[in-house]
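Progress narrative, work stream C.
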Amino acid sequence: MSARKIMIQGTGSYVGKSVVTAALCRYFHKQGLKVAPFKAQNMSNNSFVTAQGGEIGRAQAFQAQACGIEPRVEMNPILLKPGSDQGAQVVVLGKVVGVMGAKDYHQFQPQLLRMIQDCLIQLSQEHDILVIEGAGSPAEVNLRPFDIVNMRVARMAAAPVVLVGDINLGGVFAWLVGTLELLSEEERSLVKAFIINKFRGDLSLLRDGLDFLEKRTQKKVLGVLPFLKELVIAEEDSIPEAKWKTPPVQDSAKLTVQVVLLPHISNSTDLESVEFESDVALRYLARVPQDGERFPDLLIIPGSKSTMADLSYMRSTGIADYVLRCHKAGTAIAGICGGYQMLGSVLLDPLRVESSTTSMEGLNLLNCTTTFEPRKTTVQVRALSLDHKEEITGYEIHMGTTECEERPLFRVVEECGKATDRLEGAVSTDGSVWGTYVHGVFDNSLWRRRILNELRRRRGWNALPATIGNPMASGMETLASLISNHIDLTTLEQILNGEL
């Protein structure tokens, strides 16, 4: 039996397609239906490793969790990971096939269409409903010949389309009407309704605009979703500007955690669990703080899609010197994946896997040497903390190996469900600097709280108990209520059943 389908497209990027898709996934799951997400092509450096060791977009992994199912590569068969302005790493069905510029990738795309269709068929045969997400805007006329994620997928899946616009940015009616105007007649026929996202204020004041929109386009408004400032969900890609442009709030009663905002930051979701802790004030650093500002309790260098380029950026902006000054002042320093590599003494790239530079000096805070290699490691892991025996789970995504003379941080005992035994990560002799390849390490409640309590002890504060549970859980239920409280459920059912 083939699944019913609905496709979420948008008037542009960052209008809320991923959130609306996740909300629909959660709503249908709570109705007792077998539902799965699908996005043919995603461009993001926030990725996730499936249980089978395949790499997909972080947003599709989150959407799968909203469906109550394990993420699979079929849910996001193509992932583009930008490493520079000229090229991106191309991941197909979870594995890297190469680094391509735009022209090379466009020539490669026709080979991917059958694979996209096969993934759609497979997921459709196994589920009651597929919630399909587009990318960017379907009205980019210059990109229409290369579309393998918007209207071409809608036609391939015979999926009705709901178009999402962001009213918070302004001009939402022009965006919605203009998008329709730039579509072909066949494409316009696929669009069945609109969702207006991120509305603030009195909904009655919007009524004239909604009436105009429906009369002008002969399409229904499926719903108006409110602006939710505190919606707790994983970011699909970039760090919202509010997290690094807003001046920091000085709170002497909280631990201060700073995260370097790298140009090619990857898996920024690694820090969300820390940000949600009530005793933490987390800030992303886009520049060196002003003189006189207190050094943080913890400074984290996150993952990077281009480690050497981002290390050069840190040096050119003075952030690298700031990291060293923080260390000298007694700040705890941590590195995850690319950040771990930067903390070492040297980075080697003899095959020019990552950069045209074959070697670069690291920050010399850990006695480690990283050598980049063509083979990419993508594994889910279960490990034990060597010092304190907490069990942690997470995933590794990296190209290269790191050899250290420091003591290891973890003993990995399982990879993708299979028993193993290897040492991972590094800790400096005095314990003030540590690094690991494990993404999601801070999502482990007991381990996260121990790290934070060690910082609290330095301040002379009492330890706090671990917050057990996933802070995303409340966000999941909020997502479901967005649909049940703000969407015309009768019209939604008509769209799914092909009655509109």
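Work stream C, second folded protein:
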Amino acid sequence: MLTKNLFFVPSTDPTALGRRLAAAAKEAPLVLEAGLGLPTLLRGPHIMAALRDAETYSTRMFQAGILKGSLAALSGQEHQQMRRIYNMFFTPRAVQRYEESIVRPVATEVIAQLEGKETADLLDEFAVSVPKRVITTLFGLPLDELEENDARVRAMFRGIIQVQNPVAVAEGEKAFQQTLVSLASLIERELATPGQTLLGEIIRVLKQEGIATLECCQQVVISLLLGGYETTIWLFANALYSLLAHPDSLERVRRTPALLVPAIEESMRWSPSSVGTLRLVEKPVSLPDLELAPGTPVYLATVAMHYDESVYPSPFVYDLERTSTPMIFGGGSHYCVGAQLARMEARVALSMLLDRFPRLRLDPAANPVFRYGVRESVAYGPDNLRVLLS
């Protein structure tokens, strides 16, 4: 098996990751990704087969760690039943309610803090700030603990992804236990009187299903914190950079606001925040160009599909006319249940930002560097978004 460093190579070109993956996929369907230390699938047909075949490619490796008992770790009938419950948290009506009661007020507050400034770094002051405040408010978490919660979430992420790193795993477990403790009193209060937050919605649904225990509520909240946190932050960052780096497309969006939705979708393909997901091989895989033994953990580099010319013609071109769906939310039975919430957040916040700052543009003196693991995250994105506001 070839060993390649595909993810951990910084570049000022946001498509550099895609170019490396596309080139590597032509050489071999499977490589050992040096930074992850994991066999990594690169070709679209193999990746899609793995996402769709939960019996051959399972999520069982999550059952012994932080995600034990979570939706990501479940399979079969148990997964179907729990996914039905999760879907109740994100009905179109619920997402619309969160838009009006939480996302718009949070975005208004964050954007107001930019008033009067000529320059800003919109990575920290917008792309990070809005999703962090939204997820904190959605669950009714104290805003004064925002940074502490942020550090814990990042530690848990590292513990999940860096399964070969005992230090990361231990730090992730410690953060997990601390988060359980911090959630306990909040959940117990909501169990007595559910509020109008996402946590209240979760508790009402779990009560309806007869499974509203403290432990179940804690696991659901942690699953959604992990699933809807960093992907959304870096979705914001990459979507904003994609538009600012293509002034003609940005002008089209300004003239025709409905184009913001395809612009965000294309940004998730052109410069995706999430690059893949983990699976465990349960049955022998024997194909003409791929052999995998049971017990092998594999990383599905879904982002590689974004640069497959047979799926996306001229893949390195940012094109608002594309209609193919990007893969950052995964696929198959484990497709992200909060995808529509993340899309709504990005649409609302970016629209408000662009409306407020009609001359918004990249600072020509800035030169963002894109990398996987940016700011110790498990995402792909720029290290800054310095802009001119006026």
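The mean pLDDT is 90. No further action is required on this item.
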